[in-house]
């Protein structure tokens, strides 16, 4: 009969375990992180599918995050007035405040977009010539213009858009959605991250962190090379049957250890990931193996073109994750703040040609592919960046290759799929694309988050978690749902 002294031996055994999952760093895939606190009660599976608060078509969400600050007036906002004022200061900007006011108080000159714009689809959506493929999908998209973020610096603003707070430590959007809805696939994480193959975004893994939510809700990074998830593979010297026996032995030791304790430690919650990790050894490699995809699908995503292959693979994997029931996928394009990000302070023309050329075909391909498979209706697609750009450069002479500065008043986003109303629009910017047009408060990030939750069948006021003595929400003080975007 096992006795209490085995507690230390058990931990030593787990620490030395050599089955390939003993050191598994998969806090985002813990199937039973929220174990019952009362001995004798059954364990609860925190990833088990949950009911929506109200009916919505979307069962999955793909969040496309463009790191660096996409220039809205060179992509999705046609502002001919800027061409008229190119090289001149913006005339009359009353009511401008904050960092934007500071930039305008110095010498500046307007930068007209060097790209042609045209209207597309029955909706007549204005789009830049940089998106010829996405333009064919114009009638599937719903746009939000003039979104206000709380900070004009990349780090805090990236946090704000991806977690609802400009400060580190809050759960990401994907963590909240998985917390509220669980996942349909119990052999894969419910929240998967596919970052740019060239490197990590600003803030790194904090962009997909679980914050103060249980570890089960953290995003799991799907690696570009080697094993799709770090430390997942079983050593070649160990057979599946041997590994199964080892897991069963660990399970028995766990049960004995937990039987005499009234609370459950983080170690016990992490150990519960073993069963899911065991299943993932088959599921994860199958998902990332795209060798079975036919030629016309490879072409649709641009996989055989060096320019589009990187993001094309990310988008194709996102479709495969949707097919397999994964709840939330975060795709990141852009690396930190540099030539591989959308942060074009200099030569915005060259930068936008490069960035848009890398994502236009893959994103359009994703929309087409989901639609032809009947999956777009049950998948919410969100395109976002951390901020917009200014219509000017801080110089009295824009020069031959001008760039654009940061603008926390001009973020543009779009959505598609699910119950999104195709061709709809929320918000607007002024004739300079400088800030929100009209009277009243601009659209806030919390309003966008409330809308995303609504489109996933959840009320932001009901999706709550008690932390540090207060009730926390993704939208903090609450957001206003943008009903004009909802069919």
Topology record:
Layout (H helix, E strand, L loop, with lengths): L5 H11 L43 E7 L13 H5 L13 H8 L3 E2 L6 E4 L4 E4 L13 E7 L5 H10 L9 H9 L9 E4 L25 E2 L18 H20 L6 H6 L2 H15 L6 H7 L7 H15 L4 E6 L14 H25 L6 E7 L2 E2 L2 E2 L12 E2 L3 E6 L8 E2 L16 E2 H11 L8 E4 L2 E4 L14
Helix pairs in contact: 1-6, 10-11
Description of the structure:
The chain is α/β, with parallel strands linked by helices and 487 residues long. It has one domain (45-241, 282-485): 3-Layer(aba) Sandwich (Alkaline Phosphatase, subunit A), CATH 3.40.720. The protein has 12 helices and 17 strands. It has helices spanning 6-16, 80-84, 98-105, 154-163, 173-181, 240-259, 266-271, 274-288, 295-301, 309-323, 348-372, 445-455; strands spanning 60-66, 109-110, 117-120, 125-128, 142-148, 191-194, 220-221, 328-333, 379-385, 388-389, 392-393, 406-407, 411-416, 425-426, 443-444, 464-467, 470-473. Helix 1 runs antiparallel to helix 6 and helix 10 packs parallel to helix 11 (348-372). The protein starts with 5 loop residues before the first helix and ends in a 14-residue tail after the last strand. 47% of the residues are buried. The model is unreliable at 1-8 and 13-44 (pLDDT under 50).
